[in-house]
Every structure is written in C-alpha cells, then in structure tokens.
Amino acid sequence: MVGLPFLLLYLGEIRGQLPDIPTQREDDPQEELYQLLLKLRQEEIFDTLLVYGKECAFHSLSRRLEVPMVMVSSGSTEFDWGYSTLTLILSCGPEEEKEANYRNRVKLQKNRRLIYLPEDIQPDSVCNNYSLKEQYNVAMVREDFKKTRVIYACRFLSHPNLVEKHLMTSDPIFIENFQNMHQKPIKAIADLVAPRSMVCVIAKSGEKQLKGYVGNLITNFAQKVNATLQYETLNNKVSFLDIIRRVSEDELDIGISLEALNVNKDLDTASYPFLLTNYCLMLPVSAKLPINRVYAIIVHHLVLVIILVLFIVLSILLIYSQKRSWKNLNVANILLNDVAIRGLLGQAFPFPANAGKHLRIIFCILCFASIMMTTMYNAYLQSYFTNPPTEHEIRTFKDIGKYHQKIALPKFEMTSLITTNNSQFAEINKRELLIIDGWKDYLNLRDSLNLSYGYLVTEDRWSVYAEQQKLFKKPIFYFAKDLCFSRQLFMSIPLRRHLPYRHLFEEHMMRQQEFGMVSYWKSHSFFDMVRLGITPIKDLSPPKVFEASLLLQDISWILKLYFAAMMISIFCFLFEILYAGQRRVINDVR
Ligand SMILES: *[C@@H]1O[C@H](CO)[C@@H](O)[C@H](O)[C@H]1NC(C)=O
Ligand SMILES: *[C@@H]1O[C@H](CO)[C@@H](O)[C@H](O)[C@H]1NC(C)=O
Ligand SMILES: *[C@@H]1O[C@H](CO)[C@@H](O)[C@H](O)[C@H]1NC(C)=O
Ligand SMILES: *[C@@H]1O[C@H](CO)[C@@H](O)[C@H](O)[C@H]1NC(C)=O
User: Do 355 and 479 belong to one domain?
Assistant: First the structure.
C-alpha cells in the first residue's frame, strides 16, 4: 500500500519529462540537423536565424523551430542592419558568406556560425579562412551528418585547432575562444597622462608596471584573459590624437587612453562609454580687495541717492511741521538742516518742548532711518574688514575678456572646439588665449598650477587637483561649474574596429565600474601620483603676505578729504566775517 503512491509519483515524473524529449521522426532527412539546432539553442538562446546561400538543408528548418529567419541568398547585404547579438548564422557553404558591409561584419563578429560543408573540403582550412577574417565562432557539419552525427568546431589560440563533437555528447560546441588567450599579445599604447595612465618602475626587478585607473583596468583585463600586454608609451612629439589614428587604422588593439565621444561619432573604434564627466574651466581664485578700498566699495551710488532723497524729504517735512507754514522753505534750510543731518547720522539733536503730533511722528521716522542706516553700514564695514570681497568674479565667458583672464589651451583642443562650432568657445575673446603646441607642454603648465592662466580641465581630472589643493594653505584654483564647454561628456577607451574580444573587454570594464574598483582607483589617484613622483607633495600656493591690521594710511584719503572740507569751511567762515565787517563799516560811514 505504501509503495503505490511512489509508483504513481514516478510515473507522473516520467510523463512530465516526456514533452521535453523531441519526438524522433526517423524518416525525416533533416531530423539530425533539427536536433543540432535544438542543442545549440539550449547552449545559448538565439532569436534570429541568418542564412547565407541559396538553397540547402537549413532553409526548411525554420518552420519547425519557429524562429524568424533572414535569408541572404546572394551572400551579402548592402544595408547596415541592426542584427541582434542573439542571431545564429547558418551558411550553406564555406564561401557563401560574403558580407560587403563592414558594419554588419563587425556586428556579427562574435555570433555563432554553423556551416554546411561539401564532402571534398577540409574543415581546418575553413577554420583558417574564417580566422583570417577575424571570425572565430565557427562550427561545421558535413553532408553525411545524418550518418556520422559529428560536428567539427574550430578552436583558436589553443591546440588542437579543430575538435570533433558528437551530437549526443553534452559538452558545448561553441566556446569563448578569448577567455584564455594563452599569453598572446595585446598591442597597446599608453598616453601616460596622469592620473589615468602612469608607469611605475619596480626597483627590484626593473620591470615596468602600468598604473592609473585606465592603466589598471587594462592590466587587469590582460591578466584575466591570460594575455600579455605589449605597450609603448607616447613621447612629447607624438600627439595623443595619434593613438586614435593608429587604433582606427588597425595598428593597435587598445589605446590606454581616453577619448571624448562627440555626438556624431559612432562607437566603431571606441569602447562603450567608460566615464561621464564635464569639460569646464579651472580658474585662479581672484585676489581679495585691499583693505583700504573697503570704505569706497561699501558706498553704492544708488544707496547714496536714496539716502539723499530721504534726507531732503525729511528736511522739508521738518521745516513745514515746525511752523505749519512754508515760510522758512529755502535751499539753505533744506540742505543744511542740522536736525535732519544729525538725526540721520545717529547723533543727538534738540527736541522741541512743545512738539505737535506731526512733528513727533517725523522724529520717529528720522530715528528709525538713522538706526537702519548706521547699523547697516556698521555691519557692512565690519564684515568686509574681516573677509574682504574678491576683486572680480568671472561668471560668464564674456567676463574672461572683460577682466583679461588669460586661458591656456593646447592647439589640438582649439581646433576641435572650432570644428565642433562650440558656442561657449566662440564667446571668449581670442586675445586672451595662450595656445600651446605640444600637448605635454600644456599638461606640464597646468600641473605646475601657474596662476597666470586659467585652464581647460575635465571634472574628473579636477578632482585630483582639488585633492592636491587640500594640502595648500588656501585653494588657488576653483572649478568654474558655470563655464563649461561641454556637459555630460562621454569618455571611452579606443579599441580596434574588429577586436574579437571587444565584448569581453566591455563586460570587464563594466564589472570593474559596477563593483566600484574604478572609483576606488580614482580616489587614490593623487596619492599614486605622489608615490610615483609625478606630483610634488608641497604647497604651490603663493606665500601669504603678512596682512597688517588697518593702518592710519589706509584711511588717509578720508582724512585728506576731511582736511580739505575743513579748509573750505574755514575759508567760507573768514570770508563771511570779512564781508560782514565791511558791511558794518559801510553802515557806519552812512
Ligand atoms: C580559403 O581561402 C583561399 C584563398 O582565399 C581559397 O583559395 C580557398 O578555397 C579557401 N578555402 C576554403 C575551404 O574556403
Ligand atoms: C596561460 O597561458 C599559458 C601559456 O599558454 C599557459 O601555460 C597557462 O596555463 C595559462 N594560464 C591559465 C590560468 O590558463
Ligand atoms: C559649423 O558652422 C558652419 C557655419 O556656420 C557650418 O558650415 C558647419 O557645418 C558647422 N559644423 C558643425 C560640426 O556643426
Ligand atoms: C607662470 O607663467 C608665466 C608666463 O609664462 C611665467 O612668467 C611665470 O614665471 C610662471 N610662474 C611660475 C610660478 O612658474
């Protein structure tokens, strides 16, 4: 009784598995090929079949597989099709695939290929021909596949070059050939722009090692795929645009460098974007205003006019409400109204004993205005004495010409800014530009943090300068976030067009980014640069001049003005006495 449920369960299990086993149809001539495609689909799913060649056994299979099929009977397509990475390529013969469009060839490079081979052709020569075209994912079946059930799969970089697999074996037909490159070289060139790529020589063995966040990424990749990294380094004479040129001419596999992607560029010779950054200006922090000019700048013209108007209005009101008549109204009484002057300057003034309601209200207004004014100027003056304002701040690209801020930039950068019609660059007065021919000279000037110039810098590089400035007594440069030539600039690594392990590299790159390795390396950039002797660990800010406290000579011009005014008053006074004396003499004579 106990055994029965187990038996039922067992039967149920077998029945559950039955639909997975395709029903064998012995009479069908394509049965084995169909089994093979099912096996391939289990290894890695495919969603499209691309069939090269006119008519062969593959053509009738698609209906049974229920997968869309693209038939290219001529062997070549002119149009740039967007084939998916999940396309399986079937070819009716070794010479049938004659793709003319190179974009399609690049797109289909890593896809799996199954080739139907006539009896008389040797499989290893097919492998060789495909490897010359840098297509490495190839397997073949012969015409007698129905009988032998043998699949020939090409292997590269390892021995033997060709393996035979039986249809019923479980090990995979296609493998990732470049997972282990068996110490094959990766040809590269390093631009040695700190901090992204730097070279460090190990003292013990004299061996050179690549550092920096791009350098590390590529060294790790070579290690991961068991390849050797063969790299040259750029010198000053060769522009780093040369890396991009040599990569696009297929001379190099990888450039250990970063290249900005502009809108029109395709990703043929560049990796998937590696960094996202802003490209802006870094400008010297402008000097503080000398302390003796603080008195002058707190007096704003508009505020002066308002105070003057307030003064005149208060004077007129005072004159009227004292006698309730306009009799005393004249210019001298308005402008030299001692009550209003003393009131506004916060001084004591006589308050009439029997003041009316109106007069008291006006006195209240006067007192309030005086409190406002004196406290405002007090606060203004004292805060500016403690922390003087900067001389001028550059807020727009036009200000660069206005304040004669020199900007240094390398020549190739200027050419590229002009050819891309950069609107921000067009606003800069060209007389303020210092154009430097050698790009390394430019980098050296920028690294010396010479305060005579502003520089073009990516936000990424700026973070290292910001780290460096933490050692300084005070920061000498700032990153002008409002003055950017391009925002959201994608940077990617130059890669050869037909690089067969491009997908492995990009996956590696994204994994390192995702895990946080890249940001970790970046955060260590400055200390790596110090360790390798690229950046000195010293304060590059100009020595601080000893700022004496406010001296009498700082406000001497105010005293001079006061003195001149006193002289004029004395002169007027003397003149009045003399004039009055003469009148009395004339009256006496009469
Ligand atoms: C391989 O290429 C050579 C030269 O292009 C050609 O002669 C030969 O027939 C090709 N072999 C196969 C198997 O396609
Ligand atoms: C790397 O390649 C070398 C040379 O072919 C080989 O001896 C070694 O076993 C490989 N290393 C790994 C981890 O596969
Ligand atoms: C730049 O502007 C010129 C003339 O205004 C135009 O002919 C050219 O196509 C523009 N270039 C780009 C890259 O937009
Ligand atoms: C900065 O550059 C100017 C002009 O090129 C030069 O005269 C000056 O000596 C440099 N200053 C420093 C600190 O190198």
Answer: no
